[in-house]
Amino acid sequence: MRLALNNVTYEIKGQRILDQLSCEITTGITYIIGKNGSGKSTLLKMCATALQPTAGTIEYTKLVENQQTVFQRKSLTTEEIRRTIGYMPQEFTGYAELSIERYLQYMATHKGIPRRHVKNIVHKWLEETNLYPIRRKALFTLSGGQLKKVGLIQALINQPQICILDEPFEALDQMERYYFDRFLRRYAFHSIILISTNIVEEMQEGDVLYLDRGWVRLFTGLEEESYQQVKEWIE
Ligand SMILES: Nc1ncnc2c1ncn2[C@@H]1O[C@H](COP(=O)(O)OP(=O)(O)OP(=O)(O)O)[C@@H](O)[C@H]1O
């Protein structure tokens, strides 16, 4: 799977938020970083097909084998992208009146997990993220960290090939961050994972897309030198 941004520009109310952004992103973790208001959430919404660029294109392609057994790149349609994506927006709320368990079972079914497996899969996630004891609480009664975990689970539950997570670790404690981070790291071998963050300490090895008025710098492998550089930009 490959994601290509080609001169992506986004304007709203006369303000240019992203200016001719171009880069290619493949499987693995890519951190989207930048100061407050630099356009991280806007970019992620566009990658999740929730917003359209004002100009330029966002293209997902995957390798498919044709009848002559030759591999070719095929562009995914919007429908195919939506079926392939797990997205957690920054302001995730889910269906506020549903309980955690009902909501996750609903999402798992909606995302195509066979009904006979749904209960077990949801049960496992609830146990592993310490949400099991409060599984019957309605989403609107949850704390910020509890809701964030539900948001992450719904995005990851069907192991999507594209995960788009907007500030996923905000409000999580150290152990919970560690749990999701370990999961994403394993998962990054076969999926594109986009994570926006303002916290450089959260970043592990990965690529970095730095948004600064349309400038883009992409690092492959986050080594000590690049890590320090990223810290300087953010501060
Ligand atoms: N609906 C809107 N109307 C007007 N301006 C908007 C709208 N949505 C976003 N913006 C502006 O676009 C810019 C980028 O917003 P965005 O939320 O993408 O930034 P961000 O990098 O995710 O910020 P943060 O780190 O604070 O979450 C901001 O200046 C914001 O005020």
TrEMBL record:
Q: Where is the ABC transporter domain?
A: 3-234
Q: Name one Pfam family in it.
A: ABC_tran
Q: Which domain of life is it from?
A: Bacteria
- Per its record, how is this protein called by name? ABC transporter domain-containing protein
Matching InterPro entries: AAA+_ATPase, ABC_transporter-like_ATP-bd, ABC_transporter-like_CS, ABC_Transporter_VariousFunc, P-loop_NTPase
Keyword entries, A-Z: ATP-binding, Nucleotide-binding, Transport
